[in-house]
Amino acid sequence: MYNYLMDEQTLRSGLAELPLPAIQYFDNLPSTNDLALAWADQGAPDFSLVAADSQSAGRGRLNRRWVTKGGAALAFSLVLRPSLRETDHLALFSPLAGLAVSLSLEKLFGLRPNIKWPNDVLLSRKKVAGILAEATWAGQSANAVILGIGINVAPSSVPPAHELLFPATSVEQETGHAVDRISLLRSVLEELLAWRPILGSAEFFQAWENRLAFRGEWVEARQSGNEPLQGQLVRIDRDGNLILRDNTGKEISITAGDLHLITVDDIHLRPVE
Ligand code: BT5
Q1: Is the pTM of this model over 0.85?
Q2: Which protein residue has the closest C-alpha to ligand 1 atom 30?
Q3: Which residue of 29, 58, 200, 223 lies most exposed, with the fewest beta carbons within 10 A?
Q4: Would you state the pLDDT for residue 29?
Q5: What is the DSSP string of the chain?
Q6: 150 CA: nearest ligand 1 atom
């Protein structure tokens, strides 16, 4: 499948109408999040954008690796300067990105994405986008949030299955046609700009919850250093925590971790207290 060109010129002209204060583009970077963190330290203004065609040391959560092959994917990071109101909702920036990617895939291609808590975007139950939000602190207050987004666009962006914790796909595999990366990037930025002012509102949670993957299914939440927790996926609460119902009917709240689908055979039965 033909993948549209991306270079500095096409990127800048494709994004010219958006209110971006500054853009840095690279054919290759270790990680757009690392560059954005350094740029934030040097005073990059709110909504500054770093984009790269490929990454040699792309990062996922918990220092896992994120693969970005040249000519095939989107990898970008925004420097956000949280307002006073937003500092109460820092944990919601990554779901905001998941929502923005989902809405773009819906509007541009009529796809039906789901958001795997907390923020992976899935198509046909496979991961198409990953998000990494990192904050830098000045004392007690967040000085900047770096919002990094990676989207698999062409089929060649999808790493081989043995490198993956969870099945993956690309936008083009799901649409069946070539996709212009810059139009997709522009749409994601537009959605971020549109939804950011209502971060944490009832409308925001509704939009997130409407797209929540695995609702009603049995999942296991794994968090390093802790016992995995199992339950039926119920909803998210107003702090962005995931609520599961365990086999005793009790609701449990999950703040962080990775979700895995489980089968009935995997369910550890706990005695009813
Ligand atoms: C994430 O981590 O999903 C966050 C990925 C964030 C990437 C963006 S790209 C722009 C910015 N710059 C960076 O350096 N990072 C951000 P996590 O949930 O921990 O998932 C990581 C796991 O996803 C890996 O351990 C692999 O199993 C899998 N993986 C790696 N590359 C993938 C890809 N291209 N597509 C699907 N899965 C992938």
Answers
A1: yes
A2: 66
A3: 223
A4: 98
A5: -------HHHHHHHTTTS--S-EEEEEEES-HHHHHHHHHHTTPPTTEEEEEEEESS-B-GGG-B--B-TTTEEEEEEEE---TTGGGGGGGHHHHHHHHHHHHHHHHH----EEETTTEEEETTEEEEEEEEEEEEETTEEEEEEEEEEEE-SGGGSPPGGG-SS-B--HHHHHSS---HHHHHHHHHHHHHHHGGGTTSHHHHHHHHHTBTTTTSEEEEE-TTS--EEEEEEEE-TTS-EEEE-TTS-EEEE-S-EEEE--GGG-------
A6: 9
Whether the CB-CB separation of 135 and 158 falls below 8 Å is answered with no
For residue range 255-270, list pLDDT tens digits in order.
989 999 997 677 766 5
Whether 144 lines ligand 1, by a CB cut-off of 6 Å, is no
Q: State which amino acid sits at residue 209.
A: E
